[in-house]
């Protein structure tokens, strides 16, 4: 069980930190959280599943760094931005990225070695360099028609990746 700590900023409420442990983390929906701070679940090897409320628009860096047993993440429907390394070195096998995310930042999914499938919804426009760097087992990326730019280095270190376009 996790206990969460919040801070109200000029721009709105920020989820700053948490204490505790457990296989599942459901971020409460009783507050209008806009931003999740860096390192929130960093190193929580026991974590398997995370669910965010749809109010969140930004997820900080190194959020799941080292969460090697993490298998399921429900991203917020209104998410606009991932910071670099947000999902780095975690154990997710597949992920669905909401179309509200305009761009996938560099190193967002760095070294996610269990990641095999990515589904990007309509609305996302860019995939920046090294967004999926060294995701060695990534095989399928489903792209929306709204993608206008994919860096030639976006999938560096992903030898078997196939991009499926609509």
UniProtKB/TrEMBL annotation:
<dbReference type="InterPro" id="IPR026906">
    <property type="entry name" value="LRR_5"/>
</dbReference>
<dbReference type="InterPro" id="IPR053139">
    <property type="entry name" value="Surface_bspA-like"/>
</dbReference>
<dbReference type="Pfam" id="PF13306">
    <property type="entry name" value="LRR_5"/>
</dbReference>
<protein>
    <submittedName>
        <fullName>Leucine-rich repeat protein</fullName>
    </submittedName>
</protein>
<dbReference type="InterPro" id="IPR032675">
    <property type="entry name" value="LRR_dom_sf"/>
</dbReference>
